[in-house]
Amino acid sequence: MDLAELEIFRAVAREQSITRAAKRLERVQSNVTTRVKQLEESLGVALFQRDSKRMILTAEGHRLLGYAEQMLTLAEEARQSMRADAPSGTLRVGSMESAAATLLPRPLGRYHHAWPDVALEIATGTSRFLADAVLAHRLDCAVVAHPGTAVPSAIDVGELGEGLAGTYLCTEDLVLVLPADHPEVRRPEDVALRHLAAFARGCTYRLCAEAWLAEGGEDLRQRLAVREMPSYHAILASVAAGAAVAVVPRSLLDLQRHTAALQCVPVRPVHTFLVRREGFSTSAYEAFQRELLRT
């Protein structure tokens, strides 16, 4: 195995297509096909199940992908360490949807202006998904929310995944949003609607919302169902339509138009961290962390 083979293998695994992988790597398809076959022959196993449309990883392929992610990440760290005074290479950043809209735009703009040689790759997802991706070497770092209620200095980000380290960034105020014509809500049991609009499981804000609403007792828990939504636009549209309630960070709500008529009820503060793998450090990451702390 060499790093070029592993990079090609990883691209095909991610794209599930020789054609798309070749385009992403700027290689000809025949070269990608040949290198994948050579890797399979050298290992003596089939790494993909092939059909007419997709390249699906076998069990052996899944195992190799974990090692490939680690080796390619370590190689990138080594390359960057040779130029510690000038950030370069690739930095893969994960972020919650809300932080991508409110916290990241200005720091990312400053970072790109200061370090144009760094290729930034941005991915979004729930805090659980992002923490797992950092630990699996699919991301270098991620902006996530921690469900803990202690002061930031007392919170252990390792609770999000063994092997994670983190830097405190800010504290968000979570608010319950309801339709304008909903009866006034002072306590969880005052919620009359039957649905909570939220992201998929693994979202820290959803976890906080469910915990707060659970304080309303068994009757509220039994009649309140979760409607999973793909975006905050969909979540707020569902609330405005009178179909659900939701819990969102106030900073995100402040960015939205036409939300003044929604009813808002304070829920709790939630702390936001930049997490990375313990021991991970590159000049590109350190420069990015500095920009975030300037916010």
UniProtKB/TrEMBL annotation:
InterPro entries: LysR_HTH_N (IPR000847), LysR_subst-bd (IPR005119), WH-like_DNA-bd_sf (IPR036388), WH_DNA-bd_sf (IPR036390). Coiled coil: none annotated. It comes from the Bacteria. It holds the Pfam family HTH_1. Residues 1-58 form the HTH lysR-type domain. Keywords: DNA-binding, Transcription, Transcription regulation. Belongs to the LysR transcriptional regulatory family. This is LysR family transcriptional regulator.
